[in-house]
Amino acid sequence: MTCTFSAETIEDTIAFHGHSCPGLAIGIRASELAINELGSPEAIEMVAVSETDMCGVDAIQFLTGCTYGKGNFLHRDYGKIAFSFYDRKSGKGFRALLNPAVRAGMDEELAALMGKQSDGSATQEDKSRVKELRALLQDRFMTIGLEEMFHVTPLTTDPPRGAKILESLTCDCCGESVMESRTRRFGGKTVCIPCFATMEQKI
């Protein structure tokens, strides 16, 4: 099943991110899956949770309207290519984990070649092969069926609660304003996280 977003929408997504790449393609297909499963972002109250900070999160922000600034896109730094989507209105939600098999064994070769690029030992042939493999992966991600691309499991937990406006406190150390939920107490003082880290460090 080829991606159902229009060519124009895909080009707009690429322009938003700044370049076309396999990681962006993953986010495009995850967004497509979310819309297929939950409905149009205009019709529902969608919330997205990403377990990675790779290129695909830009596609999700652009295509679903879930953004960090609105508080309906959360990042959990687990290092997994997995995305959860919820509809706050219906309570329905699912988690989509990228199926490693969709990479069709290209990862090992690509990783080795990119390692050579990093240490400066890559030949022109190596560099050409990297471009070829990335193009092959991107094409595969954009054309494979969604049911093959992701392992999907329903979510039974409630969606993350909406963003709340919290009180701002003044750090007793640096004097800067800080959200109350991000403060620490140390030596009877209310301090921000960077100041706390400096005061509490063991070395």
TrEMBL record:
Top-rank taxon, per record: Bacteria
Chain ranges passing through the membrane: none
Keywords of the record: Metal-binding, Zinc, Zinc-finger
Occurrences of domain Formylmethanofuran dehydrogenase subunit E (ranges): 16-150
UniProt xrefs under InterPro entries: FmdE (IPR026328), FmdEsu_dom (IPR003814), tRNA_methyltr_O (IPR053194), Znf_DskA_TraR (IPR000962)
Keyword Metal-binding attributed: yes
Keyword set includes Metal-binding: yes
Cited Pfam families: FmdE, zf-dskA_traR
Domain annotation Zinc finger DksA/TraR C4-type: ranges: 168-200
PANTHER family per the UniProt record, alphabetical: DEHYDROGENASE, DEHYDROGENASE-RELATED
UniProt name for this protein: Formylmethanofuran dehydrogenase subunit E
